[in-house]
Amino acid sequence: QVQLVESGGGLVQAGGSLRLSCTASGSTYSNYAMGWFRQAPGKEREFVGAVGNIWYGYSIHYADSVKGRFTISRDNAKNTVSLQMNSLKPEDTGVYCCAAARAPYSDNPTLYDNWGQGTQVTVSS
Questions:
Q1: Quick one: which of 52, 57, 83, 99 has the fewest CB in 10 Å?
Q2: In whole angstroms, what is the distance from residue 18 CA to residue 106 CA?
Q3: How many CA within 13 A on the CB side of residue 86?
Q4: Residue 18: pLDDT band by 50, 70, 90 thresholds?
């Protein structure tokens, strides 16, 4: 199993930027796909983006709603994955969680079995 800790959330005005970081420990990090998900109050958990594991070539995919605005990067030396969020919109508001899956790649939250506690992102008008 891996343990995940997110950081970097906060309050930002529309059009601004935030960078989230997720640090993993406790297992073989490179064998896991790493995903970012978000959830607004009263809403279902939503896929944001993910990077595959070493056997998937660390390829990255994004939800259509964030393409061109968000960027995922993976630093294998530090066992971290980051989410750079630019041109933020009020509808981006929510609790952002990173997650690890014992799979080459997945955009399905049910396949992720290791979750961080989440960090709040609030985008004001």
A1: 57
A2: 24
A3: 6
A4: very high
Which amino acid belongs to residue 104? P
What contacts 91, CB < 8 A, 6 or more positions away? 123
- Cα distance between residue 100 and residue 109, in whole Å: 10
Query: What separation, in Å, do the N-terminal and C-terminal C-alpha atoms of the chain show?
Result: 40
Distances (CA, A) of 77 to 19, 21, 25, 80, 102: 19, 14, 12, 8, 19
**Nearest CA among 107, 32, 33 for reference residue 65:** 107
Enter the tokens of residue 88: 């933020």
Alpha-carbon span 78 to 107, nearest angstrom: 23
Token readout for 108 is 């399905």
Specify the residue for token string 């995922």.
Answer: 72
Q: What is the pLDDT of residues 38-77, one digit of tens each?
A: 999 899 999 999 999 999 999 999 999 999 999 999 998 8
